[in-house]
Amino acid sequence: MPLTRKHLVVTGRVQGVGFRWFASETARACGVTGWVRNRPDGTVEAEAQGTPAAVTGFVSALKKGPRFASVSEVAEQDVPAKAGDSDFEIR
Question: Exposure pattern of 30-59 as b/e (b: 16+ CB <10 Å)?
Fold first, then answer.
């Protein structure tokens, strides 16, 4: 099965609300590898890799976010898949 990878930037009230933890747990549940981190501008950045269905499910969950988040946008960009990803990490 081919893998797909997306670079994501999530805007809204997404820092200080458990968003990175939520993304990490959601990635594991979806079977997605990659990473997530806070950016200085208040957004959250992530890369997610997996089957197209797994990545789509992950992105859909990020659009809702955890309970105390308020997601206004998830910008998506397709990027080349990377060999060697085996987990999803919080950076």
Answer: bebbbbbebeeeebbbbbbbbeeebbebbb
* Residues labelled catalytic: 20, 38
**Whole-angstrom Cα Rg for the chain:** 12
Each residue's pLDDT tens digit, 68-90: 999 999 999 999 999 888 899 99
Domain ranges of the chain: 4-90
Collapse the DSSP code of 84 into the 3-class scheme (helix H, G, I; strand E, B; otherwise coil) and give the result. coil
Pick the CATH number of 4-90 from 3.90.220.20, 3.30.70.100, 3.40.109.10, 3.20.20.70: 3.30.70.100
Using 50, 70 and 90 to split pLDDT, how confident is the model at 6? very high
